[in-house]
């Protein structure tokens, strides 16, 4: 497969690794972007995949919770410029999209776009979006949404950070609902926004994910000259230790609680559960970050202003 300059640029933006190393990695993996990231990690050039979600587009994330707290939604709507993302007309439109998502039966974006727009059913969601493009004068896109319908007793809680840069929706299961549950949800959602965990607990980590991480850590360890003379059993213990450390980063309840480093998130939840007199469980969460994984136009602010004036 021919390796293009665009592919090299994308891999460089994802990993922060130099152009030549990116080109070599893509050549060795026949252009497979995911395998190229893994290869660079194995070589110790890309320390982790954390850079893979760099913000690359404008827009905002917004959330909607129904008055009875039975339905919660989170959406990301993109714009071309940060200037438009701060515009109240745009923000009101995104809020309407989040509310629309609360009534949707769609499971993908195509079906969502084909639905009737709740605010004016003579139009589809796609047609209403086109109208907003005409009003705002900039290309817009509803990129993604997720809908939670509360399964039982407990609470849905949302959190928006940085004016819409990051949004979190979390579901808590608990037989005794109280204001303490709301505060817990906000605090845990802030934790998710800040530290971006991949899973709730270690039991939720798929076996293939652990296997892949182990492979990467093994290659890293064997490629490190400092380990050249170390016995295999010592290297195996090192890999096991590194994997345990990663699991504490990846799993929400294992993370140190950001508001009190002496506690883990699990211990914090247990303390609130004791206060409300019933067990509390995080059943699911979703975190959207604006522009995550999207490529940003290589333009500067002066160019944007010049274009707007034209």
Automatic annotation (TrEMBL):
One of its GO terms (molecular function) is translation elongation factor activity. Keywords: Cytoplasm, Elongation factor, Protein biosynthesis. One of its GO terms (cellular component) is cytoplasm. It comes from the Bacteria. It is found in: Cytoplasm. Belongs to the EF-Ts family. This is Elongation factor Ts. It comes from Anaerotignum lactatifermentans. The gene is tsf.
